[in-house]
């Protein structure tokens, strides 16, 4: 079987599985977030944290809860990493010193669902930090994203109220009822597939292909791997991430990991459709996501399989940086899925991709990670783009735009436009500052357009809370740890504040009855319009920078 | 000779790092203070 055929079958099975699962999972998430009942475990948690699950919050209170929870989480994880040497299950001789700058960058990274790693996982973090710090935030950060998305959906669904639900209830339910049970089952499946799950520190013996034995740090890998993909986190237990055989042992686990990282984000539009009382609206949003994803994966396969250059031609493939077990096509699908979502896990190294393939990984993130995007963040990002699209359509016909029976007034469009501007500002300003400082340019391992791509990728990944690394750049410095930490935190929470403000504004409105002039938002015409607006806006924003980096390299 | 737990501590947390810890704690508080201000500003938008 040719590589191309294998890749197409791999992709087709993925599409079939996602199509089969999105309805039951989307309906289940609808019931989770709409239920009035609290389980015994949940009631205990509410009592412990002092939350009243029956009280509703305004958008401002909801946003303050998100910010307070995240600030405390960052401070806790920051200190936790610094004192890990005094705690059980620490590494005896960490290869990378845990400096305050690295600890802060890592804390911000995991709380913002970015999981950018300026360190080598297995030689820096002990098992206790991996389990009780990083893995906990894998759950919590994903649940925060889902909670904010659900709050926005409630803004569309509710009429004449200031209430958006209760953040603490949404956070706890998302974690306990959705992420935890799926990740437990997924971890068991990964263990069955060969991923390791133990407490070995420095005595995990591995048999090598050459017939020898190698001692590698072991650990609770499968349990972290499952939520790493499911929650669109991406932080690897090992430095090699999903290219490491202990994290991703074979082609079957590779397929399963891609399925995990897409499944919640592709199911949330169904939840959205159920909550706003029109499944067709959910299908329209899912169709935009799927259309953009299919366009992207088609180009990615083409760029990677139709390679050019002396070395790729000589070895019959663009194999540099590609794990032999998975091959080019299955690596290309993984790279596409991880950058279209906010995951950032990698099973091959994007720095080694063809220049246009590498550009596409960046462009996927620059889309705002909406196809299908991160857990929750993909849905709210896409709904913002839908709001901008109805505004553009309203301008064309000269009437006040509406979406789901809500008028898009100046306040709503100001919030949506501000949301859209946050990440481009962070990406482009961050890259420009790094390139302007000679000391920071020294972090690049390549010169010319490829060097610019390394810096642009780092700021794109951090600002969009993806977390994947292009490789080829040294970022464990005080400057990069701080600068990337800043763009991660502002790239996560500024959009969230704007989304919640939009939700609050929409929830206060009544219903605007549909008329002959109302743009139907459940038809293919609207799907095409949203996809078009997204591509045009993102291309206009980022094309100049991409032209100086990967496009220039490709032409050269 | 350092006690065992001190010996473990030192390689990860070196001289001068105490100030670094304080700086990043203050930075975190400042960032979330700014985000809180933004939230207040957006309320008045």
Question: How would you summarize this macromolecular structure in one to three sentences?
Answer:
Chain A has 556 residues and is mainly alpha-helical.
Your description of this structure?
The complex is a heterodimer of chains A (556) and B (45). Chain A is mostly helical. Chain A has one domain. Chain A has 18 helices and 4 strands. In chain A, a hairpin with a 5-residue loop joins strand 1 and strand 2. Chain B is built from 2 helices and no strands. Chain B is rod-shaped. Chain B is mainly alpha-helical and 45 residues long. Chain B has a domain of 28 residues. The relative contact order of chain B is 0.08. At the A-B interface, helix 3, helix 4, helix 14 and helix 17 of A face helix 1 and helix 2 of B.
Characterize the main sheet of chain B. none
The average pLDDT of chain B is 77
Rg of chain B computed from alpha carbons, rounded to a whole number of angstroms: 18 Å
Strand portion of chain B? under 5%
Seen as an oligomer or otherwise, the chain set is heterodimer
What is the average per-residue confidence, as pLDDT of chain A, rounded to a whole number?
A: 93
Poorly predicted tracts of residues of chain A: none
Shape of chain A: globular
**What portion of residues of chain A is helical?**
55-70%
Q: How would you classify the helix and strand content of chain A by structural class?
A: mainly alpha
Shape of chain B: rod-shaped
Strand order of the largest sheet of chain A: 1-2
Radius of gyration of chain A: 22 Å
Q: What class, by secondary structure content of chain B?
A: mainly alpha
């Amino acid at each position: 079987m040719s590589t191309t055929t294998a890749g197409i079958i791999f992709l087709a099975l993925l599409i079939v599985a996602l199509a089969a699962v999105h309805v039951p999972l989307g309906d289940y998430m609808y019931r989770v977030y709409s239920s009035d009942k609290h389980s015994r475990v949940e009631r205990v948690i509410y009592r412990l944290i002092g939350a009243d699950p029956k009280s509703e919050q305004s958008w401002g209170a909801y946003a303050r809860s998100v910010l307070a929870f995240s600030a405390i989480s960052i401070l806790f994880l920051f200190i936790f990493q610094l004192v890990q040497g005094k705690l059980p299950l620490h590494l005896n001789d960490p290869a990378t010193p845990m400096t305050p700058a690295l600890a802060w960058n890592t804390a911000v990274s995991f709380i913002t669902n970015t999981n950018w790693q300026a360190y080598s996982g297995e030689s820096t973090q002990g098992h206790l930090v991996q389990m009780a710090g990083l893995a906990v935030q894998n759950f919590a950060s994903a649940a925060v994203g889902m909670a904010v998305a659900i709050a926005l959906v409630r803004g569309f669904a509710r009429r004449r109220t200031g209430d958006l639900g209760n953040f603490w209830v949404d956070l706890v339910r998302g974690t306990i009822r959705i992420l935890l049970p799926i990740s437990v089952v997924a971890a068991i499946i990964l263990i069955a597939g060969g991923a390791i799950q133990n407490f070995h520190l420095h005595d995990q013996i591995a048999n090598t292909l050459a017939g020898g034995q190698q001692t590698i740090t072991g650990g609770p890998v499968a349990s972290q791997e499952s939520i790493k993909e499911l929650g669109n986190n991406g932080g690897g237990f090992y430095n090699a991430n999903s290219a490491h055989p202990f994290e991703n042992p074979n082609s079957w686990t590779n397929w399963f990991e891609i399925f995990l990282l897409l499944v919640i984000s592709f199911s949330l539009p169904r939840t959205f459709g159920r909550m706003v009382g029109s499944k067709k609206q959910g299908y329209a949003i899912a169709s935009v996501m799927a259309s953009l994803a299919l366009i992207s994966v088609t180009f990615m396969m083409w760029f990677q399989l139709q390679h050019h250059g002396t070395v790729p031609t000589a070895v019959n493939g663009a194999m540099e940086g590609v794990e032999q077990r998975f091959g080019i096509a299955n690596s290309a699908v993984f790279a596409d899925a991880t950058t279209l979502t906010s995951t950032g896990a990698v099973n091959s190294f994007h720095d080694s991709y063809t220049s246009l393939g590498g550009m596409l990984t960046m462009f996927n993130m620059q889309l705002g990670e909406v196809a299908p995007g991160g857990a929750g963040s993909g849905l709210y990002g896409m709904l913002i783009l839908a709001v901008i699209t109805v505004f553009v359509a309203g301008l064309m016909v000269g009437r006040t735009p509406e979406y789901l029976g809500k008028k898009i007034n100046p306040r709503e469009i100001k919030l949506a436009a501000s949301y859209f501007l946050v990440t481009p500002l962070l990406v482009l300003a961050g890259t420009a500052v790094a390139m302007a400082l000679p000391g920071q340019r020294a972090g690049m391992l390549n010169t010319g357009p490829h060097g610019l791509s390394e810096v642009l990728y780092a700021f794109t990944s951090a600002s969009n809370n993806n977390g994947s690394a292009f490789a080829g750049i040294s970022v464990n410095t005080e400057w990069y740890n701080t600068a990337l930490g800043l763009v991660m935190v502002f790239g996560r929470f500024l959009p969230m504040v704007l989304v919640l403000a939009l939700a609050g504004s929409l929830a206060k409105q009544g219903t605007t009855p549909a008329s002959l002039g109302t743009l139907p938002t459940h038809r293919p015409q609207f799907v095409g319009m949203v996809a078009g607006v997204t591509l045009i806006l993102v291309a206009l924003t980022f094309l100049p920078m991409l032209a100086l980096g990967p496009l220039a390299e490709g032409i050269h | 000779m350092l006690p065992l737990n001190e010996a473990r501590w030192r390689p990860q947390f070196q001289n001068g790092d105490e100030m670094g810890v304080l700086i990043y704690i203050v930075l975190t508080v400042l960032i979330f203070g700014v985000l809180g201000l933004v939230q207040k500003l957006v309320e008045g938008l």
